[in-house]
Write a structure and sequence with these properties.
This protein is mainly beta. Among the domains are: 135-301, Leucine-rich repeat, LRR (right-handed beta-alpha superhelix); 1054-1199, Immunoglobulins (Immunoglobulin-like), CATH 2.60.40. It has ten helices and 68 strands. The strands form 13 sheets. It has a 40-stranded parallel sheet, with no helix packed on it. Strands 61-62-66-65 form a four-stranded mixed sheet, with helices on one face. It has a four-stranded antiparallel sheet with strand order 64-63-67-68, with no helix packed on it. α3 crosses α4 (110-119). The N and C termini lie far apart (88 Å).
Length: 1200
């Protein structure tokens, strides 16, 4: 489709044109000529380019253009270049990778294109959206054509490199979004020209350092840096950006914070630092952030809180410190904090909270202390004007609560004290908490409740005392709780309940007394009328119910009497006309005669809708048992001894929908009992003794939707011609003895979608019975556990709606090219645990809609590339547990595949071509193979990979080069259970893993999985589970040690600097060289020196013991040996002296340079030249990557 230019030409007054989501493939030159458009929407079409004169005629009026969600490959600058009034341009979701590509195409010359681009401008453009394109690099000054731009989005591109001068022309820029890219480094001055910048979003990148990046930006308000790999917060990260309001730093790898990093952020309001590796907080860190209101430090490694660290935060309302390692809370830490409303310090290791620790927090409304190790709770809260509303103290070890702990806490509404070790509840606990509405005391050791304990709780609505050791309930326990609506007393040791124990609870709606040894229930327990809706007496050892025990419970809807020792006569005493749900399972109703189950047993329960009598030892059901229960909807009779069902059992049940008869002894289908149950929707007859089924006998169940017949002895099915089960949706015939299906199997069940035939005796797919002729809407089929040896069906039979097919645990050995021709709609194919040794060419060629292919646990030795061609929609491929020894290159048709499981094969290598076409792969599992090497380019093209599993291989040295291309997108890396050789060769791996500790958390909430071996580096993700650690296998003395917990000196004792030498000594300089050890990772050096004699010290040079330092930087950290040179000249050197010796000095310099060049050819060196030299002692200080602080080389060079 093309633009209807002629039809538009006469619309002179048209100002806005909307062509979104059409099929436009081309816009011709002059398509809009003569119009006065100010807004044009071409979103969601199929445009791949814009001709140079596409917008000709709109130069004076066009203000907004939307060409997002098309197929543009270059930025259409040539077409836009004359639109001087264009303000808004949306180009998201295209394939644009460069700004000036269309100019280069027009000029056919890159340099000419660059020159021409410099002359083009969109002077009014203020909004540019380039999100979801294919930019990989932001070049120097590439936005010079947009000088007035205020909002710029590069969300979800592929940007790895941002040049230092990238944004230098955007002096008006206010909002920048570069989130969800692959940026690793940013130049400290990258935003140096963008003084009006207000919002920067760099979240979901892989940035390691932010030193200086956000400094000197006076209008900056919001900084989004979550989900990066930032290692530390240096002092200059935000210097002089005084208007910063919000900083998001969650989910990084921050292990160090400089005390001055926030010292200029006087307007900071929200700071989010959750999910990092912060071990401590400098006491002065927040001193200048006096306007801070919200602080998130949860999920870190903080072990202690310094007194006074929050002392200047007068506006702080919320502090989150949960999931750290805090062991104590001292008085003075949370002072004064007059505005604090929420304090979260749960899930730490707090053993002690000093008295009055929170005494100044008068505005605090919510405090969470759960999941700590508190044993005693002192007087910790503010007593005067306390605002406390909720207190969470569950999951501690509390056995004592100070009498004054809750004193004057008059506003508390919710209190959690469950899962502690409290032995008694004293009346002083709740003396002042009159507003308490919900109280959780479950799972303690409470044996008794003092008299009037709850006297001060007139508003309490919920009380949970379950899981304690109460032995009796006295009538005065709950008498004051006149507002109580829910009471849970389950799982105690209650043997007796005094009469009228609940008499005062006039609002009680739910009562749980289950799992107590009551034995019997006297009638006076519920003699007074209670508004109960739900009552549970399950597993109470009840042997008898007195007459009219529940007569006063006229509002009761649900009653559970499961797991007792009641007989049918007790049930007949129930007189509750409003009861709707009755649970009687696991009682013994096997009594014969007057004590057995009897007709009319439920006659007084006229409103009953759900009845459960599973596992009640029922041998028969008398006729008319449910004659008065005409509202019955669901009945569970499973796990009994029923051998037959009488004709009139279910007579009159006109709304009966669900019947469960599983695990009985029925030998014949109970068709007589089911006759005319026209409302029945679900019938479960699993695990009986049925041998044959005549479906004609189901003709009365016209609304049947689900039929379960699994695990019987069925050998034959019949009666399909005359039955019309048109509503049937699911049939389960698994676990029977079927050899075949009749051709007319459920032919009239036009809505049947799921058929389970697993664990029968089929030798092949019963295609004639299951194809579209019989079951036109079949979408799910399970044939697992049959002795199937071939799949092929006749050509005429089709399965047009079949989406999911399971053929597992069969005798299949070969997949032929014809096997799946009839399954063209198939989306999920499971062929697990067969004996497949070969896949014929073209076996899957007809499965063009396939999303999942599972070939695991077979005997495949090879998988040729051709076998998977054509599966363009495939998202998951599982070939684990086969015997693959080599992998061919995966087809380019699998570019959208997301999960590939190759675990537990016999692969010993991966070549650089194997995965090169799998651009969409998110998860690659290679666990349990025999790999010892990987090609350096093995994973280079997997730019979206999130999970890589290399566990249980034979890597003695985990290859680092293949892993580095994954650095920006990887979230979980699993390396454990490889025979790691811990030596100097492993040092680079150690450093790389140290810098990516965040991967250790990827397996889920700080427990297990993730990157084995990082817990010793500060990672908390493995929770002490040593099986997940990457451990040393060699040498013998290090076997079993956790690699990440070691220091480099433990596995590499070679000298850091094996060779050091004096290259040259001159009157005013000395040249020192050294040779560094392989993998040292040297990234800087410093020469500190002092004079030891008078010598030739010129005037103004350092005196004895005075020092000066010169710092250098290694230009190439990847080289194993470092070279660097730095020169330090005395600032006060006599100028006359320099002038006299200048010529001689230059000559010597030339000679020295030639000597240095010869030395560099002999061995790589690092050189530092210091001028104005006399008798000196030099201390050489080096900065390897893996040390935060400097260390001193032991060698001293003395020059006399």
């Amino acid at each position: 489709m093309q633009m209807p230019s002629r039809a538009l030409s006469s619309m002179q007054k048209l100002t806005a044109l909307d062509f979104d989501y059409n099929e436009i493939v081309r816009v011709e030159d002059y398509s809009f000529y003569g119009l006065r458009l100010s807004k044009l929407n071409l979103k969601g079409n199929r445009l791949q380019g814009m001709p140079e004169h596409a917008f000709a005629g709109l130069e004076e009026c066009m203000q907004e253009i939307d060409v997002s969600e098309n197929g543009l490959r270059t930025f259409p600058l040539m077409a836009l270049r004359k639109l001087d009034h264009l303000r808004i341009l949306r180009l998201s979701n295209n394939r644009i990778a460069t700004f000036y590509g269309d100019i280069q195409l027009a000029t056919n010359n890159a340099s000419a294109a660059a020159a021409a681009a410099g002359a083009f401008q969109l002077p009014s453009l203020i909004f540019l959206d380039l999100s979801s394109n294919q930019f990989a690099e932001i070049g120097d000054d590439c936005f010079r054509a947009f000088p007035q731009l205020k909002t710029l989005s590069f969300y979800a591109n592929q940007i790895e490199l941002v040049q230092p001068e990238a944004f230098k022309s955007l002096r008006e820029l206010m909002s920048l979004d570069m989130s969800h890219n692959r940026i690793i480094t940013l130049d400290p001055k990258v935003f140096g020209r963008n003084k009006r910048l207000q919002t920067v979003d760099l979240s979901h990148n892989h940035i390691h350092a932010i030193g200086g990046v956000f400094s000197d930006l006076p209008q900056l308000r919001e900084v989004f840096l979550s989900e990066n790999n930032i290692l530390e917060l240096p002092a200059d990260a935000f210097t002089n950006s005084t208007n910063v309001d919000v900083i998001y730093l969650e989910s990084n790898a921050i292990g160090h914070i400089d005390p001055n990093v926030f010292s200029t952020l006087v307007n900071l309001d929200h700071l989010y630092l959750r999910s990092n590796f912060i071990p401590l907080l400098p006491v002065t860190l927040f001193d200048k952030c006096t306007k801070l209101t919200s602080l998130s430090l949860d999920n870190n490694e903080i072990q202690d809180l310094e007194i006074g660290m929050f002392r200047k935060l007068e506006h702080l309302r919320e502090v989150r410190l949960h999931n750290n390692r805090i062991r104590r809370v001292r008085k003075g830490v949370f002072e004064p904090l007059p505005a604090l409303q929420e304090l979260h310090i749960q899930k730490n290791s707090i053993e002690d909270i000093e008295p009055q620790a929170f005494s100044t927090l008068q505005s605090m409304q919510h405090i969470n202390l759960q999941d700590n190790q508190l044993t005693v709770l002192e007087d910790i809260f503010a007593e005067d004007n306390s605002s406390l509303l909720s207190v969470q103290l569950e999951a501690n070890y509390l056995h004592k609560v100070h009498p004054r702990t809750f004193r004057r806490q008059r506003k508390v509404q919710i209190m959690w004290l469950k899962d502690n070790q409290l032995a008694r509840v004293e009346r002083s606990f709740f003396a002042d908490t009159a507003q308490l509405g919900r109280l959780y005391l479950s799972d303690n050791r409470i044996r008794d409740v003092e008299r009037d304990t709850f006297a001060g709780l007139p508003l309490l609505q919920f009380l949970d005392l379950s899981g304690n050791q109460l032995r009796q309930l006295r009538r005065d326990y709950f008498a004051p709780l006149v507002a109580l609506e829910e009471l849970n007393l389950a799982r105690n040791h209650i043997e007796a309940i005094e009469g009228y124990a609940f008499a005062k609870l006039g609002n009680l709606k739910s009562l749980d007394l289950s799992h107590n040894p009551l034995v019997q229930l006297s009638r006076d327990v519920f003699l007074d009328e209670l508004p109960l809706h739900s009552l549970s007496l399950a597993n109470c050892s009840l042997r008898k119910l007195e007459q009219h025990a529940f007569r006063s419970l006229t509002n009761l809807n649900e009653l559970s009497l499961e797991r007792n020792q009641l007989n049918p006569a007790d049930i007949q005493k129930l007189d509750m006309p409003n009861l709707r749900r009755l649970l009687l399972s696991h009682n013994n109703f096997s009594h014969v005669g007057s004590g057995g189950i009897m007709a009319g047993m439920f006659d007084r329960l006229r409103s009953l809708q759900q009845l459960a009598m599973a596992n009640c030892s029922l041998g028969q059901i008398p006729d008319l048992l449910f004659a008065k229960n005409t509202n019955l909807v669901r009945l569970d009779l499973c796990n009994n001894r029923l051998a037959q069902m009488n004709r009139n059992i279910f007579s009159g049940l006109n709304v009966f929908k669900e019947l469960r008869l599983c695990r009985n002894q029925l030998a014949e289908f109970p068709h007589i009992a089911l006759y005319n149950l026209s409302a029945l929707e679900s019938l479960d007859l699993a695990r009986n003794q049925l041998a044959s089924i005549d479906f004609f006998k189901l003709s009365g169940t016209l609304n049947l939707r689900q039929l379960v017949l699994r695990d019987n002895r069925i050998t034959a099915l019949s009666g399909f011609n005359a039955v019309n089960l048109t509503q049937l949706d699911s049939v389960d015939l698994s676990g029977n003895l079927l050899l075949s299906l009749p051709a007319n199997f459920l032919r009239h069940s036009i809505n049947l979608q799921r058929v389970d035939l697993s664990s029968n005796r089929f030798l092949q797919i019963p295609s004639s019975a299951l194809s579209d002729v019989s079951i036109p809407r079949l979408s799910w089929l399970n044939l697992t556990g049959n002795p199937i040896n071939r799949i092929y069906t006749v050509k005429e039979e089709r399965y047009p709606y079949l989406k999911e097919l399971y053929i597992c645990q069969t005798n299949l050995s070969i997949l032929t090219s014809k096997d799946f021709e009839a399954f063209q709609a198939l989306q999920h194919l499971h062929l697990v645990n067969n004996r497949i040794t070969r896949i014929s060419p073209g076996a899957f060629k007809s499965l063009t809609n396939l999303l999942t292919l599972d070939l695991s646990v077979n005997e495949l030795e090879m998988l040729p590339k051709e076998r998977l061609q054509g599966l363009r929609l495939l998202r998951s491929l599982n070939i684990s547990h086969n015997t693959l020894k080599d992998l061919e290159e995966f087809s380019a048709d699998l570019a959208e595949m997301q999960t590939l499981d190759l675990s537990f094969n016999q692969l010993d290598r991966v070549s650089k071509k194997t995965f090169r076409h799998l651009h969409g792969l998110l998860e690659l599992l290679l666990m349990g193979n025999r790999m010892t090497v990987l090609s350096n380019d093995a994973f280079r093209f997997l730019r979206k990979l999130h999970v890589l599993d290399l566990r249980k291989n034979y890597f003695e040295l985990v290859p680092l080069e293949p892993l580095k291309p994954l650095e920006t997108n990887l979230r979980t890396l699993k390396l454990e259970e490889n025979p790691l050789h811990c030596s100097c060769d492993a040092q680079k791996l150690w450093e790389w893993l140290r810098d990516h500790r965040k991967w250790s958390l990827a397996a889920g909430s700080g427990a297990g999985g993730g990157l084995g071996g990082l817990a010793g580096l500060g990672g908390r993700g493995l929770g002490g589970d040593s099986i997940n650690y990457l451990r040393c296998e060699h040498p013998t003395e290090l076997r079993g040690k956790v690699f990440g917990r070691m220091e480099p000196q433990q596995f590499c004792d070679a000298p850091l600097i094996p060779k050091m030498a004096i290259q040259d000594i001159q009157p005013y300089s000395v040249v020192v060289s050294w040779q560094s050890r392989d993998h040292l990772g040297l990234n800087g050096f410093e020469i500190v020196y002092h004079a030891t004699g008078d010598g030739l010290v010129p005037a103004g040079s350092p005196t004895d013991r005075e020092r000066d330092g010169v710092r250098g930087h290694d230009p190439d950290r990847e080289r194993s040996q470092s070279q660097s040179q730095s020169q330090s000249q005395n600032q006060n050197q006599n100028q006359n002296q320099n002038r006299n010796r200048n010529r001689e000095h230059e000559q010597r310099e030339r000679e020295r340079e030639r000597e240095r060049e010869r030395d560099r050819e002999r061995f790589p060196i690092a050189t530092d030249e210091v001028s104005a030299c006399t008798d000196m002692v030099f201390h050489i200080i080096l900065y390897p990557d893996y040390f935060r602080n400097r260390f001193y080389i032991s060698e001293y060079l003395d020059y006399m």
